[in-house]
Amino acid sequence: KTLDDRAEIQDAWVWIQSGINSDGCHNALTRRKIQKGDIVMLNCFPESMQGYYSALERTFFLDHCDDASLKYWEANCAVHRRGLELIKPGVKCSEIADELNEMLLEMGLLEYRTFGYGHSMGIISTYYGREPGLELREDVHTVLQPGMVLSMEPMLWVPEGQPGAGGYREHDVLIIHQDGSVENITKFPFGP
Length: 192
Prior knowledge:
By secondary structure, the chain is of the alpha+beta class. The chain contains two helices and eight strands, in the order E-E-E-H-H-E-E-E-E-E. Strands 1-2-3 form a three-stranded antiparallel sheet, with no helix packed on it. A three-stranded antiparallel sheet has the order 4-7-8.
């Protein structure tokens, strides 16, 4: 049986945040025009035919990137890469958060972390399918197991008025397979 391709896009959405409006998770729309040197955060949320949601978020810069912004972006990408390496069966969510916190602390950037490092992904939506017991935070001690689907999405937020002000986030979705292997299904490049 062939499914109608239109069903794939009926509940998918994309938005772009820029400049200081990239400072948070999914800010409201504004009429501000993107300017050269702005942080540009791309957010894509496609739905599969099976009703599962996924997500892709990437940080870019329009035309050029100043030194302060590049520092924060590279740091966040380093944390993201390490987080991807840590996701495997038998590891506690809190252990992942603790190690990534230590990385940010050593970089002098822990104060700019905004929320957990990732979460479960599920049916219906990236929000409603989330399980509180599968958040990559210090207070969640759930052990990762085969069959789990979760994100890795560290975010740094630099307050307005500081060099490099805005938000930096990369977001990938990973599946822990029954054989213990971990697959990053995002397959979209990131980082400097």
